[in-house]
Specification:
Elements lengths: L1 H12 L2 H8 L5 H10 L3 H6 L5 H18 L7 H6 L1 H20 L1
Helix pairs in contact: 1-3, 1-7, 3-5, 5-7
């Protein structure tokens, strides 16, 4: 469960060109869907001591951000991954979460 979450966070934190390479022709929504699936059971990770409350809150914030992007037609393209400030913010948030996890794992 934690491994899948880490992998999806790494994909969200990657530069746009790496995200597009990872997608390999799939839709941008695939990045969102993978992250949403991987972050479904955050409560269990908190209970097991694998996530701090602060990291939990940061992931919830990231989930809300990517959900909004997923619902916006103009944010779900490879071009948007490259040029959108919103996707840049997603990458920054994902990096911050990964850094927090590095400090606690």
């Amino acid at each position: 469960m934690l491994t899948q979450l880490l992998e999806t966070l790494q994909n969200l934190a990657a530069p746009a060109d790496k995200q597009i390479e990872y997608l390999d022709g799939m839709q941008v929504q695939e990045l969102v869907w993978e992250f949403m699936d991987a972050s479904d059971n955050l409560d269990i990770l908190v209970e097991d001591g694998l996530l701090t409350t602060e990291t939990y809150q940061a992931i919830k914030l990231l989930k809300a951000k990517v959900a909004r992007l997923n619902n916006s037609q103009n944010q779900c393209s490879h071009e948007a991954l490259k040029t959108s400030p919103d996707w840049q913010q997603v990458r920054q948030l994902a990096k911050q979460i990964l850094n927090r996890l590095d400090d606690t794992l």
